[in-house]
Amino acid sequence: MPNHFHLLATGLSDTSNVRHFMYDSKQRSGWSFKQQFGCHLWQEGYYDRVLREEDDPAGVIAYIVNNPIRAKLVTSPADYPFWGSFTHTRDDILEFIAGVPDWKPPR
Question: How would DSSP label each residue in the chain?
Answer without folding.
Answer: --S-------S--TT--HHHHHHHHHHHHHHHHHHHHSS--S-S-----PPPTTS-HHHHHHHHHHHHHHTTS-SSGGG--S---SSS-HHHHHHHHTTPPPP----
